[in-house]
Amino acid sequence: MISVLIVDDHKILRDGISAIFKTDSDIEIVGECEDGSEVLGFLKSNKVDVILMDIMMPKMNGIDCTKLVKSEYPKIKILAMTMHNESSYIHAMLEVGANGYILKNTSGDEMHKAILRVFEGKPYFASEVTDVIMNSYLQPTKSKENKNKITMDVDLTKRELDILKLITEEYTNKEIGEQLNISSRTVDTHRRNLLRKIGAKNSIGLIRFAYNSGLID
Question: Does domain 2-137 have CATH number 3.40.50.10490?
Answer without folding.
Answer: no
